[in-house]
Amino acid sequence: MSQRLTLTPFFIFPKTLNCHKPSTLSKQLTALRSNVRPTLYTTKAWLDETSLFVEAWGRVCSNWRRWWWSEQLCAWTAGPLTVLLSREGRLGKVKHAWAYMLLGQVVAISFAQALFLSAWSSTTPPHVAGGNKLPGKPKGRLSERYQLPPSTNKVIDRPSHLLVISTLLSLVTVYLVPSTISTPSFLPNLLFMHIFLILPLLPSKTLYTPSSLSFQSLYCLLALVGTGLRIPTYAQLLSPLSSLSGNTIALFVKREYQTLFEHPAESSIGFDVVWTTVSFLVWMVLEFAKRRGGEKGWKGWLVMMGLVLLTPVAGVAVTGAAFLGWKESWLVEVGGAGKQETAVIEREKTS
Fold this sequence. Notes:
Blueprint: H1 22-33, H2 43-49, H3 52-60, H4 64-91, H5 97-106, H6 109-121, E1 132-133, E2 146-147, H7 161-180, H8 186-198, H9 215-241, H10 248-260, H11 264-291, H12 293-314, H13 316-335, H14 339-342
Antiparallel strand pairs: 1-2
Helix pairs in contact: 4-5, 4-6, 4-7, 4-8, 4-9, 4-10, 4-11, 4-13, 5-6, 6-11, 7-8, 7-9, 9-13, 11-12, 11-13, 12-13
């Protein structure tokens, strides 16, 4: 019985309990389930008998208002971020990409993502050393790259089967979260989501078998899937608001803003979404300015502005995947299917 009640502390608010602080409410309810008076129930006993992980996730997924925030982080982490860590980790010679994902699960995705993007941006591309500079290319642009020497061991320009399958399965678990809340499948679904995040990032040669899908196609697919995840969420949120007096959009924004501060768990994941989005948008703009700003001209900057403005609505999982897919097209233009830009020299022999 206690197993089925693990999610109830944040969903019921008895008048006899102190409901001003969610942590106090959880402690009091756990005391009642243990047949102990709340005033005699210690914090140590509460921590021993309470699954804070389950309660926190149950809180941030319990209704569509809260899921609007949580879905953004789940869809981004399960989809484009996993591919980004795999792709740019190899391209930018940032070692142990799996550690950044693990750090994101333990601390915060925004923190781990900022560290990874900083490490990747400050690292010289591996194909610079020993290569020949492409002639006649403007300085500072993406086209100012280096051709690989003939002795290159391996060229990786396609995602592995494991990366494609794990990413799509992880997004399936994201889709299933609202329907599994308060059911026995809730925790297993979360467990599989976290497993699929780490699995394709493991440093094993045997796990890498190139698929027939290009990275550009994979990112575009993730953008479509992300859009498909957001549509039912908006439908569930906007439909009740349309019957109320006042501006529907204004009511929606007000409610989501209030949701951000209604509970510590909600604030934690909500602000993780905010800073994850901000850090990626900053990297996105800087990357475009560094690689193709001058070559694409005002049309390119117009596209960038559209992606930035669309992000608060569609979510970083959609616009981020769209940008990364667009970025892959630059590699095709410059390097012939991206091989010059995506070549990775194996370093196992020297490390």
